[in-house]
Amino acid sequence: MKYATSCIMYKFLNCVVCLHLTISSSVGYDRRGVTIITVIIGDNPSYGYFAQSPAYDVALTRALRTFPSTLSQVRRLSVYKPGNYSCPDAAALMPILAMEVDQLIRDNPQDFTVLIAPGCSLEVIALGDFAREWDVPLMAVIAIDLSLTNTQRFPTVVTFPSSDQLSLVRATLALLERYSWSTVSLLCEDVNPSRVDNTLFYVTTCRGFSNILKKSSQIDALNVLYFDAQTADNESYESALQTARTQSRVILLFVATASRLRDVMITADRLNMTSGDYIFIAPRSPVVPTEGVLQWQYNVTSDERAFVAFQSLITVSNPIPRWNVITAQMNEIRSQSQLVYNHTLTVKNSFDDLIVSGAEVMSSVTEVLAQLSSRQLKAMTGTHFRKSFLNRTFEPDSRSFFIGPKGMRVCDVDLYRMNVTTGEMEVVWQYKSVSDTFRQTSQQNVIWRSQNGPPINRPVCGFRGDRCIGSLEKSGVTTTAAVLTVLVSFIFGAGIFWFSRQHMNESVWWLLEEMRLLSVITHSKLDTFQSVQRP
Predict the structure, then answer these.
(1) pTM for the structure as a whole
(2) Which residues contact residue 495 at a Cβ distance below 8 angstroms, ignoring those fewer than 6 apart?
(3) What integer pLDDT is reported at residue 385 of this predicted model?
(4) CA-CA distances (angstroms) from residue 372 to 135, 138, 368, 375?
């Protein structure tokens, strides 16, 4: 019922938008300024109102200091719906917020409007349809759905996700190709998509990996396993790993929190899967406080086992912000959060990649606006503004990034392994998305857990060891048959030899009798008779 109502409202609002555009085109715009409207649903700790708004404020203030004359007519307004919502629920609410956005556009007909939305992909998809009808650009902070690159449906949308799912897949495929790994198992969390935490990233990423790897000619066999993340414990991890070990030596882990991933690796060590025969590859999102910091050392008794286990782990993630460079900016964001929004943003929570992404979006938008002349601004449309971002590299202090030809941020990928000397996860390989190249960053040879090097794709004896048993049985049968053949041949030959000797003996005996008979005949002629009997 809720979604049916949303559909009716959606169609009604489209009519309102069409009417609005008809009136606007007949009157015409004489644009004098820019209105940036941020559209935020909910209070998520990473991409909600109180997390994102201070970042927008600070980024805009810094841009105004950099371009004081060209950006003097830029202002920011906000449309906000408080509360905690799942992604589908927030998307269902988007038409209601679109009514408020529509009214703001009507109230400021002489301004060029830019929308910024930090919501999930479903929210942006809903708002993107309205943006198309308004012909205003929509900048999406975290949305990663590839359907948003459809320029026919979303001609004004640009997406800035700091974690690019497609680049993670390509980097992983490059790693698999380097070491000739073509048999792979995926171990994924099976969760309710209505959850509001960052677990949804791993659900969608697992699905994306599965879809692409199934179609890849590089993969010979793909197995996908699920476990319930809500009730997961060491026993459920053990069950999933036991199944995976009978299917492949390369196991991809899609596990949301750092502590949970550590537990999975410790369980793998208990199963003797971290001695070098198996390799675990874990795609990760950039730094998000709710996930925790991935580390093996917790200062508990399991540290020793975790240290060993992490030596069989490779993590794959997009570049994280240069935190040491943006320390002052993050301090300004925390101060703005406290002074303006009466919200305390702790140091730990401020080191959030999604907050930085929000600042990066505002920074890139103001950079493009600053380069427009007043004449260009008056004639600007949402579709043409989007084109200003395509195939372009932006260089904010936090990190550089590239917007590809389809209007989505194209991210490079770093691949980490543990340095056994320092105990830290360090970048060992890098994947460059634009050039599609994979290279080893360290000049030293990669050290593998096994002295034999990286795990082999398929063990000689099979994943269950059954191939060797069958081979031994076959070899035993062959050997036995050969021995029996030789033995029978020997017996047969010996028999022929024995009968041959016997025949020869009988012939000699008979000949001797003939000689005796001749002797008898001779003696008989001498009138002497001697009887002859066989011995």
Answers:
(1) 0.76
(2) none
(3) 97
(4) 18, 18, 7, 8
